[in-house]
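Subgroup meeting minutes
Present: P.N., E.W., G.H.
Scribe: E.W.

1. P.N. recapped why we're keeping a running log of single-chain structure predictions: easier to compare across weeks, and new members can see raw inputs and outputs side by side.
2. G.H. added today's entry (390 aa).
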Amino acid sequence: MKQEHFDYRTGILGSPSEVDAAEWNALLARQAQPTPFLRHEFFAALDATRCTTPNEGWAAQFVTLTDTRTGRLAAAAPVYLKGHSYGEYVFDWAWADAYKRNGLEYYPKLLCAVPFTPVQGTRLIAADATARRHLAATLLAFAEQADVSSLHVLFPTAEDAEALTDLGMMQREGVQFHWLNDGYRDFEDFLSTLEQKKRKNIRAERRKVHEAGVTMRRVRGEDISDTEWRFFSRCYRQTYREHFSSPYLNLDFFRMIGETMPENLLLVIAEREGKPIASSLVVWQRGEHGRGGTLYGRYWGALEHVPCLHFETAYYQPLEFCIEEKLDVFEGGAQGEHKMARGFLPTATRSAHWLAHPAFSDAVARFLESETNHIHAYMHELNERNPFRA
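Output recorded in log:
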């Protein structure tokens, strides 16, 4: 679908391969929050390894704006036509159920998000504020013209959310837990800032892993071997089996991002008697001008049970890496109030929503108003339980 829109030509693309990778990444580099998950390589890997396909309920409908004067990409958004609500981390199952109980179809819906990735970042990738406003308007117009129940934009930046709410989309809030680096010299320096009980518990957890004969090593993306990728994939699949669920990603996907964006990857491997038994994959990037940066906790799994190994592999080793590399933030992923006891603090997230059905839109608006009040009260309660010393 292509049409002229002011000085922009609109494209609705059925695959990320239809947009020039260099132009996409150059545009991304100009954004306020260009996370690694928004790189063209990440979307291309999902597509090429068939993790996101129409058969899987993820039909790519990437929205692009091309400047008709220069012929270059002016704005883009990763959009999917969804046949379910799996892999999103902003839950609308109750909305879908309400539609069904009233004899209405909730699916398909349009989703602007990074699949399987609850990380806040730019969703309206735009050259400037004008292009961003046009992209937001184009996205909403696409939803209004398509045969869908709704449009959902997950984990956008504040700037993106403002552009969308200015068009009448409803905003929803959530909570994650992030660790902030206060210039710590080392892990012990960080521990010294925590309440005594929490400091004692963390040391005890790490000691249990050590006394179980487990050693840890970290492997940067460019050094990860195929054997290590295959082992990590086994761990990843094991986590899903333990939760009676099917994994979203496959070994080919991990291999592909290992080849195309190794500078953003770190694998933590736990070993006992020279045998790997657990691993976690984290994603990271440097900040502007090579200073600071962010680490994103993503996937973990173990083939053997060792008390507290999850905390060591998925939290404490990445925290040590953050301190060593002088990264600013460690985003621990979706949910997880237990992270507070390990120095993570509550952080607000947001999403934007539009529903085509007027009555359901009104009902959801009332629900979101009530939910937002509960979220604010919950955040206040969490902040009262700050894990750091006064």
